[in-house]
Amino acid sequence: MWLLNNHSQGDKGKPYHGAIKVMFTSAVAKPRFNENDECTFDGKLSIFPFTYLEAPKRTSKNRGKGTMITKVVESVRQKETRDMLINQIVPTIMEKWPHSEGPKTIFIQQDNARTHINHSDPQWQQAHQQGDFTFIIVQQLPNNPDLNILDLGFFRSIQSLMHKKMPKDVDAMNDAVNQAYYELEARTLGNVWLSYQYVMNEMLKAKGSNDYDLSHVNKARLLSQGRLPIQVIAPMWAVH
Predict the structure, then answer these.
(1) Strands 104-110 and 133-139: what pairing?
(2) Number of alpha carbons in the 13 Å side-chain half-sphere of residue 213
(3) What's the pLDDT at 63?
(4) Greatest C-alpha distance within the chain
(5) Nearest-angstrom CA–CA distance, 45 and 141
(6) Terminus-to-terminus CA distance in the chain, angstroms?
(7) Strands 51-54 and 69-72
(8) What does the buried/exposed string (b/e) look like for 184-212 if buried means 16 or more CB atoms within 10 Å of the residue's CB?
(9) What CATH number did the domain enclosing 27 receive?
(10) Gap between the Cα atoms of 237 and 48, Å rounded
(11) Cα–Cα distance, 47 to 32 (Å, whole number)
(12) What is the pLDDT of residue 5?
């Protein structure tokens, strides 16, 4: 996500021209609905910005004394993604995951960015088992962008909501992104997960290649008719 800004970011003596890039990492799971179509778990675990707080180098009439400034992590490396995963994402999953599901094995799918750690990372190996939880990192298959839940539709929905708020600085952008994230309906995320499953079926039909057409399913109509599936069934020949 990009924040267009021709003003300074916290420091009036160092103006930023053009665009300030603020990177976010988001964790989502498949929402749960009961037999009455009531949401029991919205699947929205959290969205985290790569930012940090810093004391201002000079006073300003626009800031109270001691007010911290939000700064952007300009270069996100493995060190930052590892820290985010271990110290923010994992604790948040443990806090928000449905307690009724017993011992939990959670697969965390990442894309193939070089800044991401893999499951064999030594620090991750010390953190991936906590209480009833076992966390396993898996990588998205290469050259298959449709196998990324966030890119398949979730981020696009958030961006359309966020841009209506027209944030003016980094703090406002963080607030706008978080508000858009939590305003997004659980059913919208649930539909993205269904699209993900339809994509996997198309990949099976294409024998693993990415040469396929995305299925167009009128989920709103199926929901109104009470026929929206909880999950998409794989072809019989693919599971036998």
Answers:
(1) parallel
(2) 3
(3) 65
(4) 70
(5) 23
(6) 43
(7) antiparallel
(8) bebbebbbbbbbbebbbbbbeeeeeeeee
(9) 3.30.420
(10) 41
(11) 19
(12) 35
How much is the CA Rg of the chain, to the nearest whole Å? 21
User: What would the two tokens of residue 223 be?
Assistant: 């929901």
Dihedral of the CA atoms 108, 111, 113, 119 (nearest 10)?
A: 30
**Residues 205, 234: contact at Cβ < 8 Å?**
no
Total tally of structural domains belonging to the chain: 1
pLDDT of residue 65: 65
Residue type, 190: G
Bridge partners of 32? 41
Residue 112: both structure tokens together: 């193939």
d(Cα 8, Cα 107) in Å, to the nearest integer? 40
**Cα–Cα distance, 83 to 115 (Å, whole number):** 12
Domain limits at 227? Answer: 2-239
* Cβ atoms < 10 Å from Cβ of 177: 24
∠ CA 24-144-75, rounded to 5°: 30
Contact (CB, 8 A) for 200 and 147: yes
Split the chain (240 residues) into runs of 10 and give each run's mean pLDDT.
Answer: 39 48 89 91 94 81 74 93 96 93 90 91 96 93 82 77 76 88 90 89 85 81 81 76
